[in-house]
Design a protein that fits this description.
The chain has 204 residues and is α+β, with helices and mostly antiparallel strands. It is built from four helices and twelve strands.
Length: 204
């Protein structure tokens, strides 16, 4: 029986995720020493520059990245790790925001595109995925590239441009002089558009 348009082929998606899980288990058969080195590298990458004192409310440490041609920044406290070359399982019938699913240590993680949130078309390119959350992974953000960790001062940020709709503007806490949109982490994680109900009937 032909599948209805917009309905996910769950059998195919599950098979692909099972393949990714087996491959992930093989890749992640690390020794304790290798795992420790990986954690140390992550800590160094996201470490706050010690020479810059951070005053609460005036400065924030952010990770800068690009996606679909736009520069963004998100506070590093919301970024749990960076997946450099994740394999994504696309879901036919899913909304443009949902790029696909990937596996993170055996758990399924939805990976999304930021561009449609701001009324722009999503890019087809692959790139690193930022794993976003507070106490646990909640979401993956597909990027073109992750450029740097920086410290932004509140006084150098401009207000969100008035051209942004109310829903879009709630996701932006400010704009840096070079046009980088500084995302509001709590609003991003709480946005109902980024909460997907995955079921046999489809994605909502």
């Amino acid at each position: 029986m032909p599948k209805r348009e917009g309905v996910i082929d769950w059998e195919k998606a599950r098979a692909r995720l099972e393949e990714l899980e087996r491959a992930t288990e093989a890749r992640e058969a690390f020794s304790d020493e290798a795992a420790s080195e990986q954690l140390d590298a992550r800590a160094r990458a996201l470490a706050r520059p010690p020479e810059i004192p951070v005053v609460p409310g005036s400065q924030r440490e952010v990770v800068r990245f690009r996606a679909a041609g736009q520069s963004y920044a998100l506070e590093s406290r919301f970024i749990l790790e960076v997946m450099r070359a994740p394999e994504l399982t696309p879901l036919p019938g899913a909304p443009p925001l949902l790029r696909g699913l990937t596996l993170l240590r055996g758990e399924v993680l939805p990976v999304v595109e930021l561009a449609p949130l701001f009324g722009r078309p999503a890019a087809n390119a692959n790139g690193p995925v930022l794993v976003v959350g507070t106490t646990r992974p909640e979401l993956g953000l597909r990027t073109d590239e992750v450029s740097e960790v920086a410290v932004l001062t509140g006084t150098e940020l401009l207000p969100a441009p008035p051209s942004l709709e109310e829903e879009e503007g709630a996701l932006v806490s400010g704009v840096s002089p070079d046009g980088t949109l500084v995302l509001e982490g709590e609003s991003l994680l709480g946005d109902s558009r980024l909460v997907f109900e995955l079921s046999e009937e489809g994605v909502a």
